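Hi U.,

Before I forget, here's the chain from the pilot set. I'm dumping it here mostly so it's searchable later in email.
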Amino acid sequence: MSVSGVSGVRLVLETAYSWTLKTLKTPQTPETLKTSMKKLLAPENLLNLLLVFVPTAFILEFTHAKPIYIFAASALGIIPLAGLMGKATEHLAEKLGEGIGGLLNATFGNAAELIIAIMALRKGLYDVVKASLTGSIIGNVLLVFGVSAIAGGLKYPTQRFNKTAASLGTTLLMLSAIALVIPAIFHTVGTVGAVPRIENEISLEIAVVLFICYILSLVFSLKTHKHLYVSDMDAEAEKATGTHGWSQKKSVSVLLVATVFVAVMSEFLVGAVEEAAHTLKMSDVFVGVILVAIIGNAAEHSTAVLMALKNKMDLALNIAVGSSIQVALFVAPVLVFLSYWIGGRGPMDLRFTTFEVVSIGISVFTISQISQDGESNWMEGVQLLAVYVILGIAFFHLPV
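Structure:
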């Protein structure tokens, strides 16, 4: 590993375990050791324990270990790095003010998923890219909000959130479902000889429409109707997300270094994904929809659950639905645009498989029904999880 790589790892580890370094410099008593262990095992710090898999992935990659081991280590290493990226972005957003901060948050909110998808795009793994987009959308609205609703609902009988903001979010998700349905329908009814070229054109034009809608949604949420999205982020909530007390310099350093290492880990992961899928006897679609999507969204999953436990259901819903919107309206169009430049097999279209389109439609319909009354409880979370598990079972049994 290069000197710069070693220093980068050290910076990330020092950021994640700053409390450990401080503890080692002071005399230890039973009370201080107990406090240190309590901090280590606090919910907001648990993901950081997985940072040990970052150097592990480097060792496995450069010693040419089996792809399944490289895939597992890289996947586990990405999870805490993505969490550090999210924390750094949140804290920078707070320091830079509502306008620039909100734009920064919107841009880097799904950076880990975007980086993983770009690496797969470069290698021409378009099925994995599309599957990861599908998995991120359905995983956020079903798995993330489902677990959040259960966790919060077991502590509070009824949790409330802003119905207007939730309605706008589900409507934007419906737009994304429509955008994915159209290329699939066109492929079925279009003229066979003209389909490949025209499908790429249609996908590019739809990507432009989605991207414009995303920009306008930022104007709506950050400027004209920002009162609907005011986050009641008190000191307790900041502590729960792990961003309390970060300086701007520390946030920038962590964001830059974590981004570099997410890119490297993603390169390792994508390089091993096909062999790993074959070893596990799973289809590329299942790996993308379930495994890669969960890896890229794990940090957001934990944050949403922590917010639900603090009865901050507006924030939990915004994380779940907002992340899905960002994937559909920002990440997907950006990948289509980039495919014309770095795509391993030429331009990527937005023609998803029939089952992927149906899964997204079912997920959007389910979250729309659950969120329309502005309230949630643990049983609604169970229903969302049940839909996710059913879809996961179906994806698992798709032909390899």
